[in-house]
Design a protein that fits this description.
Blueprint: H1 9-12, H2 18-31, E1 37-38, H3 50-61, H4 75-89, E2 98-101, H5 104-115, E3 121-126, H6 133-138, E4 142-147, H7 158-164, E5 169-175, H8 187-199, E6 203-207, H9 223-226, E7 234-239, E8 252-255, H10 258-271, H11 277-288, H12 292-313, E9 328-329, H13 349-360, E10 362-363, E11 365-366, E12 376-379, H14 384-399
Parallel strand pairs: 1-10, 3-4, 3-5, 5-6, 6-7
Antiparallel strand pairs: 2-8, 7-8, 9-12, 11-12
Helix pairs in contact: 3-11, 4-11, 5-10, 12-14
């Protein structure tokens, strides 16, 4: 009998999603009766807006949606996405540059499969979304992490990018508004990074899924709009999950040069075929409809953002930047590490997260998952009362 591994080496090396792991553990404890408050999930707590749900109901009844459709997306949905992209970011694209995917993660995976070869290097500023490194590795490429800090506003500089670049550098991943930090890059820095990438012939993979979730004076700027010369070496990733409270509908998309989009569609034709037609019809209603519900959700997130920032800023041993976008705070707990908390002394944020869950039933994602030990991500996409109660439990534990 062969002693070869039953699981392939490439898949065996993948780390499970830390955010989903925390969310699932919190749900298990809650089902068992524990009063758990979960700050782990990057998921709006609002229902999908009613006009989107109604579009899905109508789609279910139409037999045309009971059949296969083009692997890269319904033509009318791709047309709507091109119009939405011009409306929201000023980027003019053709429908043949759009590929509809089974959620944002699928868009990331297909993008890496199409762009990367073995040995290519991808520049990834940290803190980063926990999923990015895995599809890079599955493509045989190498993630080159560039560390940023609270002192730099968790924003990477061109000097850092230049220092990290080698003759193997193929792409840069850029995310603004940022998951997990909530940072939004200012216009001049987006332009500077885009021009650097263009000058060096480096692809930019820009994740814009939080484009509508910005607060205060912050604004979202799409890099290929500001720097048109990178459009032939730029892939935009997006989806309906965050903006329209549609995480479970599983609809994302890629916007890319026509040859890259065609290749991604060809890959998808062998991989998953089309995204659910009903979900696509719902998403079409989302991107084509009014943004009134989005504005209401953003107003709620903004209120919660300020509550989290105020409460955590007053907590002994905790420091954080004020979130500018998305729905995450990314506090440093380094002032808490090494202290006794109810007889237990955490040395890492992994250990601290375990203590918080077991002692006060609060679930958050430790910074190690995002390439930033000493920090943790706290989602404020949950009800106001739960939010305040959860932060108060953390404060009480740290101050006891």
């Amino acid at each position: 009998m062969s002693d070869r591994s039953r699981v392939s080496t490439r898949v065996g090396a993948i780390s499970p999603s830390a955010t989903l792991a925390v969310t699932n553990k919190a749900k298990e404890l809650k089902s068992a009766g524990a009063p758990v408050i979960g700050f782990g999930a990057g998921e709006p707590d609002f229902p999908t807006p009613e006009h989107i749900v109604e579009a899905a109901k109508e789609a279910i009844s139409d037999p045309v949606n009971h059949r296969y459709s083009p692997a890269g997306g319904l033509p009318e949905f791709k047309e709507a996405l091109a119009e939405k992209t011009e409306r929201d970011s000023g980027l003019i694209v053709a429908p043949d540059q759009v590929v509809v995917t089974n959620g944002g993660k699928h868009a990331v995976y297909n993008c890496m499969q199409v762009l990367l070869d073995a040995g290519d290097e991808v520049l990834l500023p940290s803190p980063y979304w926990t999923t990015y490194p895995e599809p890079i590795a599955l493509a045989g490429a190498v993630t080159k992490v560039i560390h940023t800090s609270a002192e730099s506003g968790f924003r990477v500089s061109v000097d850092q990018l230049e220092a990290a670049k080698t003759d193997r550098t193929k792409a840069l991943i850029f995310c603004s508004p940022s998951n997990p930090t909530g940072v939004v890059y200012p216009k001049d820095e987006v332009e500077e990074i885009g021009r650097w990438a263009s000058d060096n012939g480096i692809w930019v993979i820009t994740d814009e899924i939080y484009e509508h979730l910005v607060y205060g004076e912050s604004k979202h700027f799409s890099m290929p709009t500001l720097v048109p010369e990178i459009q032939d070496r730029c892939v935009v990733l997006n989806g309906v999950a965050k903006t329209y409270a549609m995480t479970g509908w599983r609809v994302g998309w890629i916007i890319a040069p026509p040859d890259i989009a065609k290749a991604a569609s060809t890959l998808q034709s062998h991989q998953t075929s089309n995204v659910s037609n009903v979900s696509q019809r719902a998403a079409l209603a989302a991107v084509s409809g009014p943004l009134d519900d989005v504005a209401r959700m953003r107003e709620a997130f903004d209120r919660r953002r300020q509550v989290v920032f105020t409460m955590l800023s007053e907590t002994q041993g905790v420091s954080l930047l004020e979130p500018q976008g998305a729905f995450y705070a990314f506090p440093s707990f380094e002032g808490v590490l090494g202290r006794s908390l109810r007889g237990r002394t955490p040395e890492t944020t992994l250990e601290l997260a375990e203590i918080l869950l077991e002692e006060v039933h609060v679930a958050l994602v430790p910074g190690e998952a995002f390439g930033a030990p000493g920090y943790a991500r706290i989602s404020f996409a949950l009800g106001d009362e739960e939010l305040e109660e959860g932060i108060q439990r953390v404060m009480d534990l740290f101050q006891s």
